[in-house]
Amino acid sequence: MTDQEQALDAALKALRHRDRSAAELDARLAQRGVGDAEREQALETLERIGYVDDERFARARAEQLAARGSGNALIRHDLERRGVAPELIEAALSALEPERERAAAIATRRGRSVKTARYLASRGFEADALEEIVAPQE
C-alpha cells in the first residue's frame, strides 16, 4: 500500500464512526505520522467525493448541540476548536432556531428563575437571551 493509500485509509477509518471537520482529520493524520503531501491529497480526495464537508459538518454539529440545550457561544467555541472556518460557523448558527427562543423553551421547562438563567449562561447562552428569562412576566 502506498503512502497515499495509507493516508486515505486512515482518514476513512477516522470517519467510520462520526463526521469530522477537515482540520480534525488533518490533525489526526499528522498525529499518525502521515506526511504533509499525503494528508493534503487524502483530504482533497475526501472533499471531492463528499466524505468531508465542513459546511455540512458545522450545520449538523450546531444542530446537535442546540438540541442538547447549548447556546450560541458554546456552539461557536466547539466549532472553532474543531477548526471550522468562521464564515461556516456563522452560517450554521444563523440556520438554527433563534437563541432567545431556545432559551425561552428551556426556561419554560425549568421555570423562569435566576437559577435557570445561571444554567443557561453556563450552557453558552448570550446575555440578551437571558434577559427575558429573569425579567418579570406580565
Structure explained in plain terms:
The protein has 138 residues and is an all-alpha fold. The chain folds into 3 domains: 3-52, Arc Repressor Mutant, subunit A (Orthogonal Bundle), CATH 1.10.10; 55-94, Arc Repressor Mutant, subunit A; 99-134, no CATH class. Helices cover 71% and strands 0% of the residues. It has helices at 3-15, 22-31, 36-48, 54-67, 72-81, 86-94, 99-110, 114-122, 127-134. The termini are far apart.
Summarize the structure.
With 138 residues, this protein is mainly α. Helix content is 71%, strand content 0%. It has 3 domains: 3-52, Arc Repressor Mutant, subunit A (Orthogonal Bundle), CATH 1.10.10; 55-94, Arc Repressor Mutant, subunit A; 99-134, no CATH class.
Layout of SSEs?
Elements: H1 3-15, H2 22-31, H3 36-48, H4 54-67, H5 72-81, H6 86-94, H7 99-110, H8 114-122, H9 127-134
Helix pairs in contact: 1-2, 1-3, 2-3, 4-5, 4-6, 5-6, 7-9, 8-9
Query: Main β-sheet, in a few words?
Result: none
In the CATH hierarchy, what is the class of the largest domain?
Mainly Alpha
- Indicate the proportion of strand residues: under 5%
Assign the CATH architecture of the largest domain.
Orthogonal Bundle
Q: How many domain units?
A: 3
Name the poorly predicted regions.
Answer: none
Please write the string of helix (H) and strand (E) elements: HHHHHHHHH
Structure classification: mainly alpha
Helix content: over 70%
Structure annotation, total helices: 9
Determine the mean pLDDT: 92
CATH topology of the largest domain: Arc Repressor Mutant, subunit A
Radius of gyration, CA atoms, in whole angstroms = 19 Å
- Ends distance: 70 Å
Say how many strands there are. Answer: 0
Quaternary structure: single chain
